[in-house]
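Tokens for chain A. Residues wanted.
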């Protein structure tokens, strides 16, 4: 791992640094680049702004790894409030939600997570939108796909993320490339052992392309979550070659990352969905985004130095 990345990830787990960053006034500007804010109103304001530029949105209420059922319930309540808000502001046809099962109780009990996710799906249906399950580390993949299958029994539009870095993912793509099935394909963000994941980034890219081909040939709705210019180009060309019309698949990127590319793809007639995180637990998410790219850390340090 890059030494700067290790340093930032270590800082992410350090309570003193956490308090410093969370309370420094300068953090607000840096946080704003990657996180919509702390409240439902912030999430809705950012959604409205993105939608006005022709983008679509998926919203993530930040929080993960809950081993406390009260916290899991708080997360569910936050999603219910958000879905109400999207409906009320007439944004639900442009914005869906992304849910981490670990934030709604997966580590406590899979059935609790399933029931909580089902409550979010029911509210999404009422609002007129959809839900996508985020994918976490490989120890949770089977459980998440089991919950997905159960949810899809009632809500066939329920979607999930698959991670190209896992050896198993081509097979999972083939299983999920069925009519109406929404699959978000990403590279994968967790530190995984070589027994389950490709350690070499080139192998991950090759796996991404193989998985993209499977999804594009299938009958589902593939959602390509990547900022990688080469992969975007390959997916666009493969989609065209396989007769997928724009609108029959999506490109997806994180809020604040390559925003000009997001608009370029919209101009080319593609559906582009921006993953917008919000909530008070933004610190860990921000640190992961900074760790992904030294240039982001430079941006953060410049902001610190230029502080009035
Ligand atoms: P890569 O990391 O190789 O980056 C390619 C290029 O993109 C870089 O060269 C740079 O130009 C730009 N870039 C990437 N990251 C950047 C950053 N932080 N700042 C600035 N520029 C950056 N993972 C997971 O394990 N489970 C999940 O559920 C999800 N969900 C998810 C949803 C959506 C919509 C997206 C876009 C991503 C995820 N991810 C995820 C994260 C994903 O696995 C991956 O870690 C990141 O998308 C980065 O990988 P890229 O494909 O962008 O390629």
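Reply:
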């Amino acid at each position: 791992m890059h030494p700067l990345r290790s340093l930032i990830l270590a800082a992410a787990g350090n309570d003193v640094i956490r308090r410093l960053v969370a309370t420094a006034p300068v953090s607000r500007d840096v946080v704003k680049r990657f996180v919509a804010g702390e409240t439902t109103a912030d999430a809705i304001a950012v959604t409205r702004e993105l939608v006005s530029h022709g983008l679509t949105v998926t919203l993530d209420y930040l929080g993960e790894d809950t081993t406390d059922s009260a916290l899991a319930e708080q997360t569910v309540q936050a999603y219910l409030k958000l879905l109400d808000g999207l409906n009320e502001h007439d944004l639900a046809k442009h914005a869906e939600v992304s849910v981490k099962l670990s934030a709604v109780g997966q580590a406590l009990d899979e059935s609790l997570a399933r029931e909580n996710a089902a409550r979010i799906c029911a509210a999404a249906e009422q609002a007129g939108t959809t839900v996508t399950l985020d994918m976490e580390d490989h120890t949770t993949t089977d459980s998440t796909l089991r919950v997905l299958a159960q949810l899809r029994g009632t809500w066939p539009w329920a979607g999930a993320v698959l991670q190209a870095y896992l050896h198993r993912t081509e097979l999972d793509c083939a299983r999920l490339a069925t009519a109406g099935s929404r699959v978000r394909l990403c590279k994968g963000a967790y530190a995984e052992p070589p027994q389950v994941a490709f350690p070499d980034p080139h192998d991950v890219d090759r796996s991404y392309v193989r998985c993209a081909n499977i999804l594009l040939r299938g009958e589902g709705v593939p959602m390509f979550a990547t900022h990688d210019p080469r992969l975007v180009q390959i997916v666009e060309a493969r989609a065209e070659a396989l007769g997928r019309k724009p609108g029959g698949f999506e490109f997806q990127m994180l809020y604040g990352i390559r925003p000009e590319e997001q608009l370029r793809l919209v101009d080319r007639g593609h559906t582009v969905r921006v993953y917008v995180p919000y909530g008070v637990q933004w610190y860990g998410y921000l640190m992961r985004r900074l760790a992904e790219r030294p240039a982001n850390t430079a941006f953060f340090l410049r902001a610190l130095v230029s502080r009035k």
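The chain has two domains: 1-34+282-308, 35-281. Residues 62 and 99 are 9 Å apart (CA to CA).
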